[in-house]
Amino acid sequence: MKSPFTGGKVELKTEVRKLEYRKEKFPIHFHFYKCIDSGEEFTDTALDNLNVAQIHNKYRSKFGIPFVEEIKEIREQYGLSAAKMSEVLGLGINVYRQYEGGEIPSVATGRLIRLAKDPGEFRKLLEISQGVFESHEYDRVLRKINQAAQADTIDEKLYFYLFESKYPNMLNGFRMPDIKRIAGMIHFFAQENKPYTTALNKLLFYADFVHFKKHGTGISGMCYKAFEKGPVPNNYGSVYNYLLNKGLINMTEVTFQDFVGDQFYSERNIQLNEEGESLFSATEIAVLKSVSKRFKGKTTKEIVQISHLESAWQNNADMSGRITYEYSFDLKVTEK
Question: Which pLDDT tens digit goes with each residue over 269-287?
Fold first, then answer.
């Protein structure tokens, strides 16, 4: 990139700045270009999107406002259109669709939407607004609520066991943990890199943190800790075992001279959801490919050594501490 002021060279800079959104100030890692000749600062669309994403994510997290994926998921669990969901919640006819498109609700509305995720609470809202449904539609939504109530008990226990938090925050890259997306990531790296467990842990870490560095969100929704051999997903053994038992990933034991290693492999591509759509966005796929390429051909030992260069590991290894995604902005691997 050339300077729009002088046509000369520029450098990418990052510094912590407090920016205001809805009368609240949040510290973010503000990204900008600086013209070397004139000292002028400027941004482009990509940096603007990253800076704004950081502010919006922190605002949603602080006030308990659901993220876009959660807003869509809440509606879909009841089998409602965005328009009908708006009516049940007492919103304008197109409002819910706008929230799914990225517009941020008010604090009160955001908490109402998150409360609606609970089938018992949503049943109350449905009873209040049953006049907006035909009788057969009302019965159909009631059946969905009952199904969601049964599944909710299982999901709550599962998330509590496998993941540190099911709500988006800085520890999970502002993403809800998603079993299918995690399985899809593992299949991708199994196809491209055929990693053993220790190497896979690092590949997942870099995929999540590189995407956060570039776009302000992780991919998997997993939290990470700093262990002896580098960053690892929190509770990764249980997560992998769950996926194996469900038949969502494949692993084989490989015998070496003095130990047995678990190697991941893939017999099929599961990077699609039930509707045949990609589990991942274009930016996520690009990051998965770049991380795979960056580490392809490297041994597990080499990958571990590279991960030890990261401040995310160095600053947390002594206590096996949790790694906040803000360390993504200090990543060294993408600078090579």
Answer: 665 555 556 889 999 999 9
